[in-house]
Please model this.
Amino acid sequence: MRMMGNFGGSFWANFRGFQSSSQIDEILEKEETTLAQLLDQDEILQEMRNQNQKLIDFLNRDRIMELIEYISVFPPDDADNKRGHKFPFLASELFACEIPSLLDKFYDDQTLLEKLFSFFVEPLNLTLAGYVSRLVISLFIRNPPELLKFIIEKSWNSWFVQHLEYRAVLDIITKIILVENPSETFYVIQRKEIVQNLIKNLASSNPNAALNSSQILCELISKHNDVNSWPELAGVLTQKESLYLLTEGLTSQNNYNINAVVTVLRAIMASSSHTDLLTLSKKQATNLDEDASTLLEDEESPEFIESFVTVLPKLKEILENFHGGQIQTTFNEDIEALGEGKIKIIEVIGAAIKMEIKEIQAKIEEIEVVKTIVGIFFKFEWNSILHTTFEQFVNAILLSSSQVLKEQLLNTSGFLAKIIEKGLNPGRPGTRNPSLKPGYMGHITRISNLIVKTSENRPEITEIISKTERWDEFKSSYLENTNFLENRHLGGYQPLSFGDHFAEEDARDSEENSTNPFSSYSNNENSNEELEIPEEEIETNEKPLTSEDLMFDLNENEEKKEENNEPDPEKEIKSESIGEVQGEPDTYSDVNYWATPVVIEELEEL
Model:
């Protein structure tokens, strides 16, 4: 696309004789022309996109410095609209045209880069930060190694981390982390320091900084195949200090910190390379190519697993302590608030179960956190996000290899007994609205169907539910009836099953007619005698009928019909005779004809 843009500009530049003279050219020919006068012209952006050489030559070092000032220095209070809005926007758009000769001037004279990056020393303005970030990204695209060298050697990366609450800075740091270079040692140490700072920022008191840090780390994990120095950068995530910060972040009192940490942990657990991440240990420093399973056997406990196992009891304590405050529902009931952080903790525990790591599953079995989560599900009746997360949590346990977790879920926690009770006795006794069904009833139906379906291929689940009292009653009454109502086609019987419906009617009709097949021709409805037809009335035709015989019969019938229906030409329907016509009992019964006199001859003419 850039080649096409360059070609278009040079193409039209060679044929300026066919177009009217540009006003920009006339202004540039004047010696006293200023940058402000040029920015005030409407066609300046189009001329820059067309690579007007006079315009490009006009933008020397001093004028580029002036453009940088427009996009990096906040205008004074008494500035007009042009200085405050128009000129900064146009300056940003001029740089965004990505004219190679214009961008190369930044690398030829690094004072321009220093002027540009000095913007990050002061508190940032949101709009100006977007303009500066746009120019920095363009410079990165033009010459990534040269710009990264300038940033690292001048320690500008430390200033970027301080402004992580801004989306514009997030884009710059992402470029620095994910920059590709043939050399695997391309400022890896400095980039690892940036990753460490991002992990620390997950506990930031600024919600935007924590969220942006987690987003950069997740992008690093998801795009590891595109990064040459991935093993070294990933090693930062598996260091003991980093793992401690990640797992301890789950115990934060702020929901946004928990959300940021859970986002990173979920990315690690869901990554296709999570085996490498989770088995990195001290031994990896000497043998990076060793098989992951061998590491698990040789090492007593990998660092990630050890850190996660250590924090699990703390997570259970957080789930058991409710301090979310009170909120009022639309039906005037005061209920306790759960908080998004606890939902995220349940989510990450479910993700840990899916990983099928023996040490983690053993710790979850030991602390019996499943029972705590089941209690939360039934306690918070109206939290639909919790109910959806719990459904995924149940699915993870049912599909896991841990028989203990399945026993804890279906039996020890009393989950099956509670859903049977709620299914057979819906309602909320002891509340202001006892007849109102809890909000989790739909999820109970989905989870029950999941249990039934999973038990078909897993005999251990079948064994557990077979010992549960009233399960068959719950399944045959509540579950089957609910599934029938929810799966029933709106408007009545399902069209896809009409064949069975008509088959039943045909069978019923066949049974009724089996005793008297000619009952419909009988004068007496209650008579069971068969219709007798005299043999002399039955005529046999030895000669079969032909099409000519049929046409003859049809013509003969039509002629007879015309003779019978031929009107009397002397008879006339008049208004005086309407009453007489109505009075004839056998002619026009129950019909009134309100019409003007019509003569038959006139009808024939029509």
